[in-house]
Amino acid sequence: MKYSRLTKEQFEELHQEFINFLATQSITADEWANLKENKPELAETELDVFSDLIWEGVLNKAEYLEHFSAQHMYLFKLSEEKMHAIVVNVKNDEVDITTSEGYNWLRENLMDEHVEFLQADKDYSEDKNLDKFTMIEQGASITKGDLYRYFDKLIN
């Protein structure tokens, strides 16, 4: 398995897609029930393969990632060749931008001397989607890129 298995809730959301996936492998509902009962390791493999297929599709479509910590906002644009990062550093230990109060402070004090903007490009490794997945595992979220575009206009 390349990524991680989908959660029970995710499998429930993707119920029809999973049925279609099994159908492409000529596995009927009865055969699936039999697999789960009599060959659970094979059923587990099917769940893993399906999970990886779903992750591949999601990661291929992802264009932006965001990751927040108390004093840092990491905004990534995922281009074909590399990632471009915009980092917002809050150099004030009394401000936690993961809270609504801290985020509001940042919005009202973008040009404060305690706010620093950095930019960098990062090349992907051999496996671009695994790079994206690793960032998600570390707490990043896939977004539509509104914050990235806002800060890109602000600082460029």
Could you list some keywords that capture this structure?
156 residues; alpha+beta; 7 helices; 21% strand
Protein architecture, described:
The chain is elongated, with a radius of gyration of 21 Å. The chain is built from seven helices and five strands, in the order ααααβββαβαβα. The protein folds into two domains: 8-61; 64-155, no CATH class. It starts with 7 loop residues before the first helix and ends with a helix. α3 (29-38) crosses α4. The protein is of the alpha+beta class. A five-stranded antiparallel β-sheet has the order 4-3-2-1-5, with helices on both faces. 49% of the residues lie in helices and 21% in strands.
Supply the number of structural domains: 2
Shape: elongated
> What structural class should be given to the helix and strand makeup?
alpha+beta
Which stretches are poorly predicted, pLDDT < 50 over at least 5 residues? none
- Measured by DSSP, the beta-strand proportion falls in 15-25%
The amount of helix comes to 40-55%
The pLDDT mean sits at 95
User: CA-to-CA gap between the ends?
Assistant: 41 Å
Order of helices and strands: HHHHEEEHEHEH
Count of helical segments?
Answer: 7
Number of extended strands:
5
- Order of strands, main sheet, comes to 4-3-2-1-5
Rg over CA atoms: 21 Å
Main pleated sheet: 5 strands, antiparallel
Give the secondary structure arrangement, pairings included.
Elements: H1 8-13, H2 15-24, H3 29-38, H4 40-61, E1 64-68, E2 72-78, E3 82-90, H5 100-108, E4 115-123, H6 128-137, E5 141-143, H7 146-155
Antiparallel strand pairs: 1-2, 1-5, 2-3, 3-4
